Amino acid sequence: MTESFFPTTAAAVTARLRHLARTAPRGMRHGRNASGRSGTSPDFSDFQPYAPGDDIRNVDWNIYARTDQLFIKRFMDERELRVSVILDASRSMGGDRWLYARRLCAMLGMMALSADDHLVFMTAGGPKPSVFSAKGVRNRSRFLGHLEQLQPPGGNSFAGDAASENLLGASVRYVVTDGLEPTESFRPLLRKLRKSAGEVRMILLKDDIPDIPERGSDVRFVDSETGKAVDVSLTAAAIHRQQALSERHFSELAALCREYAVAVLEAEEQDGVLELVSKKMRRAGWVR
User: Could you tell me the pTM of the whole model?
Assistant: First the structure.
């Protein structure tokens, strides 16, 4: 792992941040996240009336002496979060966007590993799927090396490829994509994600620099997904129509995400990854 790919300042921030999940963690191993069910950690949860079969060692005898009723003490059960990150590796994710996306995935993964959560990372839509699964601080460097060595993006069907994968259960699942495929192609993926994860969060990578000329001219448009080119003479009306189509596409994608209860956060690449994670994601209640 090189400093240019993931600076040590970013690594230090990930050691302090944690993923937040509104649903109970789905991990089976011990971790640092309260699962909401009774367990054996030293953190007290509440009292409940004694019932046959309860461990008599948990009876609070002080309450029994005062009320003549048996109550047992319950303690929080700490379980790991299962954090899943799916990265769009289709052709439109190339260039500076690919570096930004991998750095973002590095932040999400390093946060999970630093908190002793279980991380599953995968790419979809690229020339070759890539999967990384690990738990624990000792795997942070290995994860960064994995991200740095990923093949450049080159496919054109992220949503379809991701929907065909065997997705294991997760507490929180992140989808990092530019969302440039047809809106309806995301429906099977979102449906599958909601069935396999407690919470699904889409981070939509958008460039705040418009890719449409502000005035009429002869230009060549290249489809970022298929690579096909077309020469067009743009007029003011054509430019306005194209901008309206772009806005409509992302509006429809946002509506589809709401339909499947998928939270969406837009990430402008001009903002740094640290800004996105430590401020925007914190304000959204995704991290603490």
Answer: 0.76
